[in-house]
Amino acid sequence: WERGFTKVINVQGSDHHGTIARVRAGLQAVGLGIPAGYPDYVLHKMVTVMRGGQEVKISKRAGSYVTLRDLIDWTSRDAVRF
């Protein structure tokens, strides 16, 4: 907030949905003039990616992942969007 950003988006897994109200309340409590409802949140969930009828194994530790571009290339923009 002190650095002048007026838009912040906090991206978290859906299992952290309970922290939204607490973080926002804490920001209000410190009295720095931070507006109510700040920051914005985007919650995400894990999905199972299938390719050729087989599950694609994802491992952060092993560095195996699927990018959004991969998903679009394998399917379509509409399939990824919805």
What does this structure look like?
The protein contains 3 helices and 4 strands; from the N terminus they run βαβββαα. With 82 residues, it is an alpha+beta fold. The chain has helices at residues 19-29, 68-74, 77-81; strands spanning 9-13, 40-44, 50-51, 54-55. The strands form 2 sheets. Strands 1-2 form a two-stranded parallel ribbon. A two-stranded antiparallel sheet has the order 3-4. The chain folds into 2 domains: 1-45, no CATH class; 47-82, no CATH class. A hairpin with a 2-residue loop joins strand 3 (50-51) and strand 4 (54-55).
Features:
82 residues; alpha+beta; 2 domains; two-stranded parallel sheet; 4 strands; 17% strand; Arginine--tRNA ligase; Rossmann-like_a/b/a_fold
Please provide a brief summary of the model.
The protein has 82 residues and is an alpha+beta fold. It has two domains: 1-45, no CATH class; 47-82, no CATH class.
Strand content bin: 15-25%
Let me know the number of strands: 4
Main sheet: strands, sense, barrel: 2 strands, parallel
Q: Strand order, biggest sheet?
A: 1-2
Shape estimate: elongated
Number of helices: 3
Number of structurally distinct domains: 2
Q: Can you write the helix and strand succession as a string? A: EHEEEHH
The overall average pLDDT, rounded, is 88
Fraction of helical residues = 25-40%
Low-confidence blocks of residues? none
Rg measurement, Å: 18 Å
User: What is the CA–CA distance across the termini?
Assistant: 33 Å
**How does the helix and strand content classify structurally?**
alpha+beta
